[in-house]
Amino acid sequence: MSPTNNVPATPPVRPEYERELPPFVEAPIERGVPFTTQLWRQTWLRKTLIIIALTVIWELIARYQDNDLLLPTFTAAARAFIADVANGELLSRVGLSLVVLLQGYVAGIVLAFLLTTLAISTQIGRDLLSTLTAMFNPLPAIALLPLALLWFGLGSGSLVFVLVHSVLWPLSLNIFAGFQSVPDTLRMAGRNYGLKGMRYVLQILVPAALPSILSGLKIGWAFAWRTLIAAELVFGASSGRGGLGWYIFQNRNELYTDRVFAGLALVIVIGLVVENVVFATLERITIRRWGQVR
After folding, report:
1. pLDDT tens digits, one per residue of 73-91
2. Which of 16, 138, 265, 272 is the most exposed place for a label (fewest CB within 10 A)?
Protein backbone atom coordinates (compact mmCIF):
# COMPACT_ATOMS: atom_id res chain seq x y z
CA MET A 1 0.00 0.00 0.00
CA SER A 2 1.26 3.48 -0.81
CA PRO A 3 1.75 5.65 2.27
CA THR A 4 0.29 8.76 0.53
CA ASN A 5 -2.91 7.89 -1.32
CA ASN A 6 -3.54 4.27 -0.18
CA VAL A 7 -3.51 3.10 -3.83
CA PRO A 8 -1.88 -0.30 -4.48
CA ALA A 9 1.44 0.09 -6.24
CA THR A 10 1.59 -1.40 -9.73
CA PRO A 11 4.65 -3.59 -10.26
CA PRO A 12 6.79 -2.61 -13.23
CA VAL A 13 6.42 -4.63 -16.40
CA ARG A 14 9.61 -6.55 -17.20
CA PRO A 15 10.67 -6.28 -20.83
CA GLU A 16 10.45 -9.36 -22.96
CA TYR A 17 13.55 -10.75 -24.60
CA GLU A 18 14.71 -13.82 -26.50
CA ARG A 19 17.69 -15.95 -25.53
CA GLU A 20 19.71 -17.62 -28.20
CA LEU A 21 20.15 -21.34 -27.47
CA PRO A 22 22.99 -23.45 -28.81
CA PRO A 23 22.07 -25.86 -31.58
CA PHE A 24 20.83 -29.25 -30.45
CA VAL A 25 23.37 -32.02 -30.65
CA GLU A 26 22.36 -35.60 -30.03
CA ALA A 27 23.88 -36.84 -26.81
CA PRO A 28 25.62 -40.20 -27.00
CA ILE A 29 23.44 -43.01 -25.79
CA GLU A 30 24.86 -44.52 -22.63
CA ARG A 31 25.52 -48.17 -22.99
CA GLY A 32 24.31 -50.65 -20.43
CA VAL A 33 26.40 -51.80 -17.53
CA PRO A 34 29.08 -54.25 -18.68
CA PHE A 35 28.30 -57.90 -18.13
CA THR A 36 31.37 -58.39 -15.93
CA THR A 37 30.24 -55.53 -13.67
CA GLN A 38 26.78 -57.06 -13.39
CA LEU A 39 28.34 -60.37 -12.38
CA TRP A 40 30.61 -58.76 -9.81
CA ARG A 41 27.60 -57.13 -8.15
CA GLN A 42 26.20 -60.58 -7.35
CA THR A 43 26.89 -61.36 -3.70
CA TRP A 44 26.72 -65.12 -4.20
CA LEU A 45 29.40 -64.95 -6.88
CA ARG A 46 31.82 -62.97 -4.72
CA LYS A 47 31.35 -65.36 -1.81
CA THR A 48 31.83 -68.34 -4.11
CA LEU A 49 35.08 -66.90 -5.40
CA ILE A 50 36.29 -66.42 -1.82
CA ILE A 51 35.53 -70.06 -1.03
CA ILE A 52 37.28 -71.22 -4.21
CA ALA A 53 40.34 -69.12 -3.33
CA LEU A 54 40.48 -70.64 0.16
CA THR A 55 40.25 -74.18 -1.21
CA VAL A 56 43.04 -73.46 -3.70
CA ILE A 57 45.24 -72.12 -0.90
CA TRP A 58 44.42 -75.21 1.17
CA GLU A 59 45.36 -77.51 -1.72
CA LEU A 60 48.65 -75.71 -2.37
CA ILE A 61 49.71 -75.69 1.28
CA ALA A 62 48.83 -79.38 1.69
CA ARG A 63 50.77 -80.35 -1.43
CA TYR A 64 53.73 -78.28 -0.32
CA GLN A 65 53.73 -79.88 3.15
CA ASP A 66 53.20 -83.37 1.69
CA ASN A 67 51.95 -84.99 4.91
CA ASP A 68 48.45 -86.44 4.69
CA LEU A 69 48.45 -87.28 8.40
CA LEU A 70 48.78 -83.63 9.43
CA LEU A 71 47.03 -81.87 6.55
CA PRO A 72 45.38 -83.83 3.74
CA THR A 73 44.74 -82.17 0.43
CA PHE A 74 41.37 -80.76 -0.48
CA THR A 75 40.88 -83.48 -3.07
CA ALA A 76 41.53 -86.22 -0.48
CA ALA A 77 39.08 -84.65 1.95
CA ALA A 78 36.54 -84.27 -0.86
CA ARG A 79 36.87 -87.97 -1.77
CA ALA A 80 36.33 -88.94 1.88
CA PHE A 81 33.36 -86.60 2.08
CA ILE A 82 31.71 -88.03 -1.03
CA ALA A 83 32.39 -91.61 0.07
CA ASP A 84 30.86 -91.15 3.53
CA VAL A 85 27.88 -89.27 2.12
CA ALA A 86 27.34 -92.07 -0.39
CA ASN A 87 27.42 -94.82 2.23
CA GLY A 88 25.09 -92.80 4.47
CA GLU A 89 27.36 -92.49 7.49
CA LEU A 90 27.77 -88.73 7.38
CA LEU A 91 24.09 -88.11 6.75
CA SER A 92 23.03 -90.29 9.67
CA ARG A 93 25.49 -88.49 11.95
CA VAL A 94 24.19 -85.12 10.84
CA GLY A 95 20.61 -86.25 11.40
CA LEU A 96 21.38 -87.23 15.00
CA SER A 97 23.11 -83.92 15.66
CA LEU A 98 20.34 -81.81 14.12
CA VAL A 99 17.62 -83.56 16.13
CA VAL A 100 19.41 -82.77 19.39
CA LEU A 101 20.20 -79.26 18.17
CA LEU A 102 16.58 -78.46 17.35
CA GLN A 103 15.42 -79.68 20.75
CA GLY A 104 17.86 -77.45 22.63
CA TYR A 105 17.40 -74.51 20.25
CA VAL A 106 13.61 -74.48 20.45
CA ALA A 107 13.65 -74.91 24.23
CA GLY A 108 16.10 -72.00 24.53
CA ILE A 109 13.90 -69.79 22.33
CA VAL A 110 10.79 -70.52 24.41
CA LEU A 111 12.56 -69.85 27.70
CA ALA A 112 14.15 -66.66 26.37
CA PHE A 113 10.77 -65.38 25.16
CA LEU A 114 9.13 -66.09 28.52
CA LEU A 115 11.99 -64.49 30.46
CA THR A 116 12.01 -61.33 28.35
CA THR A 117 8.21 -61.06 28.47
CA LEU A 118 8.42 -61.12 32.25
CA ALA A 119 11.26 -58.59 32.16
CA ILE A 120 9.36 -56.13 29.97
CA SER A 121 6.27 -56.40 32.14
CA THR A 122 7.56 -56.13 35.73
CA GLN A 123 10.47 -54.58 37.59
CA ILE A 124 11.28 -57.85 39.35
CA GLY A 125 11.44 -59.49 35.91
CA ARG A 126 13.97 -56.91 34.73
CA ASP A 127 16.07 -57.42 37.83
CA LEU A 128 15.88 -61.19 37.36
CA LEU A 129 16.95 -61.02 33.72
CA SER A 130 19.78 -58.60 34.46
CA THR A 131 21.09 -60.76 37.31
CA LEU A 132 20.85 -64.08 35.50
CA THR A 133 22.47 -62.84 32.29
CA ALA A 134 25.31 -61.24 34.25
CA MET A 135 25.88 -64.53 36.06
CA PHE A 136 25.46 -67.12 33.33
CA ASN A 137 26.11 -65.40 29.98
CA PRO A 138 29.92 -65.30 30.48
CA LEU A 139 29.89 -68.97 31.56
CA PRO A 140 30.88 -71.30 28.66
CA ALA A 141 28.19 -73.84 27.96
CA ILE A 142 30.70 -76.64 27.53
CA ALA A 143 31.86 -76.04 31.13
CA LEU A 144 28.45 -77.26 32.32
CA LEU A 145 28.73 -80.59 30.52
CA PRO A 146 30.23 -82.47 33.53
CA LEU A 147 27.34 -81.34 35.72
CA ALA A 148 24.87 -82.15 32.96
CA LEU A 149 26.25 -85.70 32.76
CA LEU A 150 25.72 -86.07 36.52
CA TRP A 151 22.20 -84.68 36.45
CA PHE A 152 20.84 -86.12 33.19
CA GLY A 153 23.05 -89.15 32.61
CA LEU A 154 24.68 -90.48 29.47
CA GLY A 155 22.17 -89.42 26.86
CA SER A 156 20.87 -86.58 24.75
CA GLY A 157 19.44 -84.83 27.82
CA SER A 158 22.90 -83.62 28.79
CA LEU A 159 23.48 -82.18 25.33
CA VAL A 160 20.09 -80.46 25.31
CA PHE A 161 20.87 -78.89 28.68
CA VAL A 162 24.10 -77.26 27.49
CA LEU A 163 22.41 -76.18 24.25
CA VAL A 164 19.66 -74.40 26.17
CA HIS A 165 22.31 -72.60 28.20
CA SER A 166 24.17 -71.51 25.06
CA VAL A 167 21.01 -70.15 23.40
CA LEU A 168 19.06 -68.69 26.33
CA TRP A 169 21.23 -65.81 27.53
CA PRO A 170 22.40 -64.13 24.29
CA LEU A 171 18.93 -64.47 22.79
CA SER A 172 17.30 -63.00 25.91
CA LEU A 173 19.62 -59.99 25.82
CA ASN A 174 18.85 -59.33 22.14
CA ILE A 175 15.11 -59.70 22.57
CA PHE A 176 15.05 -57.43 25.62
CA ALA A 177 17.18 -54.81 23.85
CA GLY A 178 14.76 -54.94 20.92
CA PHE A 179 11.75 -54.55 23.20
CA GLN A 180 13.31 -51.52 24.87
CA SER A 181 14.01 -49.85 21.51
CA VAL A 182 10.34 -49.92 20.45
CA PRO A 183 9.15 -46.29 20.00
CA ASP A 184 6.77 -44.86 22.59
CA THR A 185 4.24 -44.01 19.87
CA LEU A 186 3.81 -47.70 19.04
CA ARG A 187 3.52 -48.54 22.72
CA MET A 188 0.82 -45.91 23.22
CA ALA A 189 -1.00 -47.09 20.10
CA GLY A 190 -1.12 -50.60 21.50
CA ARG A 191 -2.39 -49.35 24.84
CA ASN A 192 -5.07 -47.24 23.11
CA TYR A 193 -6.32 -50.34 21.32
CA GLY A 194 -6.63 -52.07 24.67
CA LEU A 195 -3.82 -54.57 24.12
CA LYS A 196 -2.44 -56.07 27.31
CA GLY A 197 -0.28 -58.96 28.38
CA MET A 198 0.66 -61.48 25.73
CA ARG A 199 -1.43 -59.79 23.01
CA TYR A 200 0.49 -56.56 23.57
CA VAL A 201 3.82 -58.38 23.32
CA LEU A 202 2.90 -60.41 20.22
CA GLN A 203 1.14 -57.66 18.25
CA ILE A 204 3.23 -54.60 19.18
CA LEU A 205 6.62 -55.46 20.66
CA VAL A 206 7.57 -58.53 18.62
CA PRO A 207 6.94 -57.01 15.13
CA ALA A 208 8.70 -53.75 16.07
CA ALA A 209 11.68 -55.56 17.65
CA LEU A 210 11.96 -58.20 14.91
CA PRO A 211 15.41 -57.07 13.63
CA SER A 212 16.90 -57.53 17.11
CA ILE A 213 15.06 -60.81 17.56
CA LEU A 214 16.39 -62.21 14.27
CA SER A 215 19.88 -61.06 15.20
CA GLY A 216 19.54 -62.90 18.51
CA LEU A 217 18.28 -66.00 16.75
CA LYS A 218 21.34 -66.03 14.49
CA ILE A 219 23.69 -65.56 17.43
CA GLY A 220 21.87 -68.27 19.39
CA TRP A 221 22.07 -70.64 16.41
CA ALA A 222 25.82 -70.08 16.05
CA PHE A 223 26.40 -70.63 19.76
CA ALA A 224 24.24 -73.75 19.80
CA TRP A 225 25.86 -75.30 16.71
CA ARG A 226 29.42 -74.89 17.92
CA THR A 227 28.48 -75.93 21.47
CA LEU A 228 26.89 -79.12 20.16
CA ILE A 229 29.95 -80.06 18.10
CA ALA A 230 32.25 -79.33 21.06
CA ALA A 231 30.05 -81.34 23.44
CA GLU A 232 29.93 -84.29 21.05
CA LEU A 233 33.71 -84.17 20.78
CA VAL A 234 33.81 -84.71 24.57
CA PHE A 235 30.80 -86.98 24.80
CA GLY A 236 28.50 -87.51 21.87
CA ALA A 237 27.64 -91.20 21.77
CA SER A 238 24.37 -92.41 23.20
CA SER A 239 23.59 -96.12 23.00
CA GLY A 240 26.39 -96.58 20.49
CA ARG A 241 25.16 -93.73 18.30
CA GLY A 242 27.03 -90.43 17.96
CA GLY A 243 26.53 -87.22 16.07
CA LEU A 244 28.78 -85.25 13.77
CA GLY A 245 31.15 -84.18 16.53
CA TRP A 246 31.60 -87.77 17.61
CA TYR A 247 32.30 -88.71 13.99
CA ILE A 248 35.15 -86.17 13.92
CA PHE A 249 36.51 -87.34 17.27
CA GLN A 250 36.34 -91.02 16.36
CA ASN A 251 38.17 -90.54 13.05
CA ARG A 252 40.82 -88.43 14.77
CA ASN A 253 41.52 -91.33 17.13
CA GLU A 254 41.84 -93.67 14.16
CA LEU A 255 44.11 -91.17 12.32
CA TYR A 256 41.73 -90.79 9.37
CA THR A 257 42.59 -87.13 8.94
CA ASP A 258 40.84 -86.83 5.58
CA ARG A 259 37.57 -87.92 7.20
CA VAL A 260 38.17 -85.47 10.04
CA PHE A 261 38.40 -82.67 7.50
CA ALA A 262 35.33 -84.06 5.74
CA GLY A 263 33.38 -83.76 9.01
CA LEU A 264 34.69 -80.24 9.62
CA ALA A 265 33.74 -79.27 6.08
CA LEU A 266 30.21 -80.49 6.68
CA VAL A 267 30.00 -78.41 9.87
CA ILE A 268 30.98 -75.36 7.81
CA VAL A 269 28.57 -76.21 4.98
CA ILE A 270 25.63 -76.54 7.36
CA GLY A 271 26.54 -73.22 8.98
CA LEU A 272 26.69 -71.51 5.57
CA VAL A 273 23.36 -72.98 4.47
CA VAL A 274 21.56 -71.93 7.65
CA GLU A 275 23.09 -68.44 7.57
CA ASN A 276 22.74 -67.68 3.85
CA VAL A 277 19.56 -69.58 3.03
CA VAL A 278 17.37 -69.99 6.11
CA PHE A 279 18.04 -66.73 7.94
CA ALA A 280 18.59 -64.71 4.75
CA THR A 281 15.20 -65.86 3.42
CA LEU A 282 13.55 -65.10 6.75
CA GLU A 283 15.02 -61.59 6.74
CA ARG A 284 14.02 -60.98 3.13
CA ILE A 285 10.36 -61.91 3.64
CA THR A 286 10.03 -59.99 6.93
CA ILE A 287 12.22 -57.08 7.99
CA ARG A 288 13.64 -56.23 4.55
CA ARG A 289 10.24 -56.43 2.92
CA TRP A 290 8.77 -54.23 5.67
CA GLY A 291 11.58 -51.68 5.38
CA GLN A 292 12.92 -52.20 8.90
CA VAL A 293 16.52 -52.56 7.68
CA ARG A 294 18.41 -51.37 4.62
Report:
1. 899 999 999 998 888 888 8
2. 16
